[in-house]
Amino acid sequence: MSEPVLELRDVTKRFGTRRRPIWALAGISLHVDAGETLGIVGESGSGKSTAARIAVGLDLPTAGNATVMGRPVSESGGKGLVQMVFQDPSASLNPLLRIIPSVREPLDAGSGKTPTARQSRALQALGEVGLGGEGGDRFPGALSGGQKQRASIARALAALPPVIVCDEAVTALDVSIRAQILNLLRGVQDAHGTACLFISHDLCTVAYMSHRIVVMYLGKIVEVGHTEQIFAMPAHPYTCALLSAVPQLQQGRHVRPRIRLHGDPPSVMRPPSGCRFHTRCPMADERCRSEEPLLRQLENGHLAACHYAPVDEARLAALAAARAAA
Amino acid sequence: MSGAAPARASSPVFAGPLLQVQNLSVTIPSARGDVHAVRDVSFAIQPGERVAVLGESGSGKTMTALTLLGLQTPLAQVSGVLTFKGRQFDLARQRDAAATVLADAGVIFQDSLSSLNPISRIGTQLVERLSLRGWKKAPAHVEAVRVLNYVGVADAEARMSAYPHELSGGMRQRVMITMALLAKPSLLVADEPTTALDTTVQAQVIDLIRAVQAENGMSLLLITHDLAMAAEVCDRAVIMYAGYVVEDVTMAELLRRPRHPYAEALLGAMPRLDTPGSQKLDMIEGEPASALGDFDRCPFMPRCRHADAACEGSVPALAVIAADHVARCVHPGRVGLGTPA
Fold first, then answer.
1. What is the residue extent of each domain of chain B?
2. By the CB < 8 Å criterion, does B201 face chain A?
3. What is the distance between the alpha carbons of residues A290 and A296, in angstroms, rounded to a whole number?
4. H helices present in chain A, as ranges
5. Whether A246 and B228 lie within 8 Å, measured CB to CB
6. Which H/E stretch holds residue B214?
7. Got the DSSP string for A185-225?
8. So where are chain A's domains?
9. β-pairing, B87-90 with B77-84?
């Protein structure tokens, strides 16, 4: 198998002080292969955005390492090889700079190309995202939210990096614009063979974009698998609950058994003992409270961190209903 | 959910809808010209009915709800007729119309943190709500704890002395729902009630709103951009675009066959879990229409795949598709027939 384009190995990240640590990432490993889109889903506090920031070198891991094309992301050689698209395009474009120089910046920062070549590549990138013509001469303030996000994508792709990281890249956009941006991202990825780490809290969007999906909970990976595996046979109770919590368009008809979790996600400042999900898991028992489950392979490429994986959705739903009634 | 439901709203003494708006327009003057936030909007909510007002940012959905509650900006110029529980008000002249609605409505906003007073305890705020309705302090406290229990706030007595920031987002939204229920409203207005919440907590709050609505028999006005959530909760959809109602239809019929191209396009533009990644999303080209100025054509025309010369000249009137189904389109017969040719 060829070397992954992007890899996080045993990465942990601690915020806060040594005495009162907040482990945003409690040890995760993942990899993105060439041309592949890996999705990360999780709720607030799951560590998905921290993973994204470490993957592009905006944050340094407390332990473990992040590599792109085999090189550490934080070193100068690795930095230009991975680019990021942020959630808020208004905050990620310099308001005092016209669009073209913003898009050209990754090239100016050390592509070794001539000024003419850099300018023409920037214009080409803008054309690819549908901002050709005079779009590039405008300031960010003159563009709509969707157009700004197009410009951010052009900037991320200007230097043709092997991998990009999208952190909630369409969350701030309206539904009709969201579909445009998602299709655009898929299009430019296909055109250049760009790999992507796609992070969102929205399961539907991640499912649409990703070949494989990582499900995170409180700084840990609870399940990894191909998109079809995750949706056809979710193995971890949290994944099952997450899938059943997504509103479906079919009115009053639930394809999946309804699994309702009790309470809110616990604080990352005080993660539960044993399995981090045991406080909300309908089927948790003594073992789950004391012994932390390891990520183990269920079948080819499908891993889950649960003592009882793969779990039966119908049984889980029955247990959740019984717990709610109690 | 535990404890008994609050007493049912008394059966209506009026005939017809609980709330009806006719030809509501809201215009806000600005430096760049008049912003036509709401244009000629009419719809009705029957007693016990759950109605979703759906639209994207700038569609006028929130402004419509705020105006019905009298919470619009003082600069706004409002016109239209509001009928609430059989009483009719001219919105341009009668400023007290909204107060009548507000007194009989419970409101849940998106941002519970800024809707609650940050420097006052939860209990104080809940008791104050009842004091305004003439309750004595001690029974008001008991009632507040009872309703907190009812909406699933664990350890309700202790939570009464908590400040809003000490509660999680899901818990605060339950406090907001409690606040709304204390008034025993006949109408529950929820403006994007779960947008700020995590997926699993969102499901809890949606379930709660559904249960509360069903057990108390009140009407629900849900303002949202989320079609899937609206489909789970509501009986009827009022879809807005550029300040206009473009389709008013039962939820079942909307999912079966939408008759406005915007509604049709929205259904196709949503990533769905039953078809992950396999199909390309239908795109709505272009950008949403501006709220400035007037239209001399269908506002959706530049983005519409069914448009032709008939769509120019003026804004289309509402076409009657069935007794309880209208669409603001000149070609409703072409819409909703599946993939484009």
1. 15-47+59-101+236-272+282-341
2. yes
3. 18
4. 48-55, 76-79, 89-92, 99-108, 115-128, 145-158, 175-192, 203-209, 227-232, 237-245, 286-290, 313-325
5. yes
6. helix B199-216
7. HHHHHHHHT-EEEEEES-HHHHHHH-SEEEEEETTEEEEEE
8. 6-214, 227-325
9. antiparallel
ipTM exceeds 0.85, yes or no: no
pLDDT tens per residue, range A233-249: 999 999 999 999 988 77
Nearest-CA distance from B71 to chain A in Å?
25
A175 contact residues in B (CB cutoff 8 A): 56, 225, 227, 266, 269-270
> Is B3's pLDDT higher than 50?
no
CA distance B186 to B206: 19
Contact flag A251-B232 (C-beta cutoff 8 Å): yes
Instruction: Provide the residue count of chain B.
Output: 341
Which helix (H) or strand (E) segment is B101 a member of?
helix B96-103
Look up the CATH architecture of domain B15-47+59-101+236-272+282-341.
3-Layer(aba) Sandwich (3.40)
Do B211 and B2 touch, CB atoms closer than 8 A?
no
The answer on pLDDT for B341 being more than 50 is no
Measured CA to CA, the distance from residue B325 to residue A179 in angstroms comes to: 27
Average pLDDT, integer, range B308-313? 94
Which of A43, A176, A248 is closest, CB to CB, to B269?
A176
Out of B200, B226, B284, whose CB is closest to A247? B226
* CATH superfamily for domain A6-214: P-loop containing nucleotide triphosphate hydrolases (3.40.50.300)
